[in-house]
Amino acid sequence: MKFDFFNDITHGGIPEPSMVMVSGDPGSGKTLLCEELLFRDLQEGKPWIYVTHSDTPVNIRKRLKSFKHDMTPYEVSERFIIIDCYSSLANAQSTEKRSVDRPYDLTQLTIAIMDAARSLPKNFRVLIDSTTPLFNTRDPSSVVTFLHEIGARIKAYDGVLYFTAVTDGIPKDVVKRLEEISDCVIEARMREEKGNWTRWLRVKKMTGRRFLERPIQFEIVPEKGFIFYTEKKFIKNPSAF
User: pTM of the predicted model, to two decimals?
Assistant: First the structure.
C-alpha cells in the first residue's frame, strides 16, 4: 500500500501544531519519511524549512527528484528553504542562499531558522536532519533545551518541528526527555529476518489522538517512495520493536 496509508496509521496525519521526533537506526528511512511528508505538505501549500547537518543540499535535491519530487517551483516561490549546515562541517564554502557557518552554535541556528520563517505563512514546517551531530558535540541537555525552545516557537505559529535522531548514540535518560517534550514520536527500525534486512515503522506516541501502535513493514522503492506492506505479518509485541 502506498504512503497514503500513513494517514491511517496516524488517524489523519501529523497534527498541527506539534513537535515530532523521528528516531531509529541508521539507514532505516527516517530522513526519507520526513521528505515524503515534506513534499505532500508543499503540494498542499504548507511551506518547509530544511536544516541539513547530514547531507549536501545538492544531494537532497537529487534524492527528492529521484522520487519525482521536483523542488524547483517551491524554491523559486520561496516555499521550500534549505539552511545549509553541512558545508561548514565539511570545511567547504556553502553556495546556498542560507547557511550556518557555526553549525554547533545553537543560538546561531535558532536565529537562522526564525529568520527564514519570517517570509513564510504561519503554518510552516521545519526539519532538522540530523540532530546526531549536535548531540555528539554539545552537552545533551543543551540540545534538548534548544529543541524544546525552537519547537515552542514554531508551534506558536501553528507550525510543526520535525527532528531526526539515531537514539542508540544518545544517553537513555536524554532519549526519554526528548520523547517527553515531543507531541509525536515515530520510530524506524531495521530488522534481520532469514539473512535479509527489512524496514519497520511504528508510531510510539501521538498526543491527543488515537493511532496504530503496531509496527508496520515498509520498503523504499525508487520513483515510488514508501510502500507499506499492510498484509504482511505484523510484530505482535510493540515493546519488542
Answer: 0.94
